Amino acid sequence: MIYNLPADLRELPEGVPTRQTLDNGARQGKNDFDTIGYAGPKPPAGKSHRYYFKLYALDTTLDVAPGGTRDQVVAAMKEHVLAQGQLMGRYAR
To answer: Residue 75's Cα: distance from chain center in Å?
Structure first.
């Protein structure tokens, strides 16, 4: 989870560092594994599993400390979402 991305950013480079605060000021929050950074999919055995990547355009930066949780970010975004997009991918072992 990355938040407070600069408004003029057009892409995320491969291999984003696993730091709470990036060089451009963006902040990373904790992932499903309770760590910082993208860890990739780890679906349960069997059928394919769905993964959602969501992007939100906000009218403000969020007052959430680096290393924030999903719940903290979602709460801070309330009433600030201007637009949103979603990409869903499937993956199986």
So the answer is: 14
Measured at the alpha carbon of residue 67, what is the angle toward residues 64 and 72, in degrees to the nearest 5?
A: 45
Q: For residues 73 and 76, what is the distance between their CA atoms, to the nearest angstrom? A: 5
Distance of CA 84 to CAs 9, 43, 53, 65, 87, Å? 16, 25, 11, 22, 11
Per DSSP, the chain holds a count of helices (H) and strands (E) of 1, 4
Distance from C-alpha of 4 to C-alpha of 57, rounded to nearest angstrom: 10
Write out the chain's pLDDT in tens, 93 residues. Answer: 999 999 999 999 899 999 999 999 999 999 988 999 988 888 888 889 999 999 999 999 999 999 999 999 999 999 999 999 999 999 998
Distance CA 34, CA 54 (A): 19
